[in-house]
Amino acid sequence: MKICTHEKIDRRLCGEPINITSGYSKVQLLASADMAVDDFGLIHGGFVFGLADYAAMIAVNDPNVVLGAAEVRFLKPSMKNDTLVAEARVSHERGKKRIVSVVVNNEDTPVFTGTFTCFVLEHHILS
Fold first, then answer.
1. Which terminus, N or C, of the chain has the lesser number of Cβ atoms within 10 Å?
2. CATH architecture group of domain 11-120
3. For 87-104, b where at least 16 C-beta lie within 10 A, e where not — what string?
4. Where are the domains of the chain?
């Protein structure tokens, strides 16, 4: 399936799509040392959120999708060299509104969950 949104995103920072179907995406991110905030190798949560958000956008897969709100939980820390995998599923669709559930795992361990409220606009938000 062709990705129709966020075409210019830096995949080194937000992940590489590895599976996309209608209403679903799976995106993988290698947490690099550049994402670490300290000598322990703790990854800044913004990168984990960015991965989850990108997976949600691809699950909706519309050129005019935008994020309206997110309710998230960070369950465990992520470290440099972790391979994080986000799975996103559109769970509800009504008019312009899409609710997307996302889980990010490190191996088989959930590190993040979120519910993303997305909107599909008629035109690009900046047009």
1. C
2. Roll (3.10)
3. bbbbeeeeeeebbbbbbb
4. 11-120
